[in-house]
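User: I'm writing a tutorial on reading structure tokens. Could you give me a worked example: one chain, its sequence, then its tokens, then a sentence or two explaining what the tokens reveal?
Assistant: Sure. Here is the example chain.
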Amino acid sequence: MARIRLQRYLSQAGVAARRKAENLITEGKVSVNGEVVTELGTRVDSDHDRVVVDGRAVQPEDYFYAVMNKPKGCVTAVSDPRGRITVMDYLPGVPASVKPVGRLDYYSEGVLLLTNDGELAAALQAPATHAEKTYHVKLKGSIGRGDIEALRRGVKLDDGTVTRPAEVDKLTGSSSRHEWLVVTLIEGKSRQIHRMARALGYDVLKIQRVAFAGIDYFGLRVGDARELSQGEVNSLRKLAGLSREPRAVGRGKWEVRREESELSRRAKRRAREREQAAEGDPNPRSAPKRRDKPAASRERARQPDGQKRAGRRAPRRR
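And here are its predicted structure tokens:
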């Protein structure tokens, strides 16, 4: 195996994120072949070098890749300091220390990739990769042709930046009195679709990401997750411009259904409500406030839109 930086090695071993791993090194808590190392430029070979952190030998774990159909009402994070439900609470028994690739807003749902392959995760989020993200977006009211063209060309956001050109079309077959769009972006600004719509005077009522970098939620109910196949892993690494890696294995075997974590999620919610009540919160069940005005009639469905609306098909697996 090629020699890699020690902090990257520790990150791949699931010890800590790379920045925290750098702190462990400079604090003298890491040794290589019995010698304490404090220099960040140190390189190691996992096939021959013995790395120890705080007296415990560590070794990089195999990479693991999964896709989840994220539900709304949970945080895209490994943990939450406020005690809210996170996407990890839906993944009991996941066989690696995975982290979400990018973010989906608290009230957004849809495709979320998770992996412990930090190099791939960073590459998929890099602007130069142009990883496509496709969303179904529900706007309040209807949208004119001119505004659709504006979204396609790029609009000026509240911070003065202009969005890159995007693919934007109307979704047909919906009986809703509000407009549904399919939007494909190649960038990932914070709350970008909300801000694009607001710049043109529209309110977003619902966002569902249906595909990310060619991976979709085909066959996954909201709250379910599955391991990627080898073909899907190879496709992602090729898109990211990464070479073949022996540990980049997609077996396509692991999966989890939302029912498997329901009891633990209920217990976590009750514990948070008790804690909020003890702190004097008059409404402990309250969820984080939306930045946009809430829709008059919010969707209660728990299936992907393509499986619940006539005329709207779920995307095919590529």
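What the tokens reveal: Residues 65-256 form a domain with the Pseudouridine synthase fold (CATH 3.30.2350.10). Confidence is low (pLDDT under 50) at residues 293-314.
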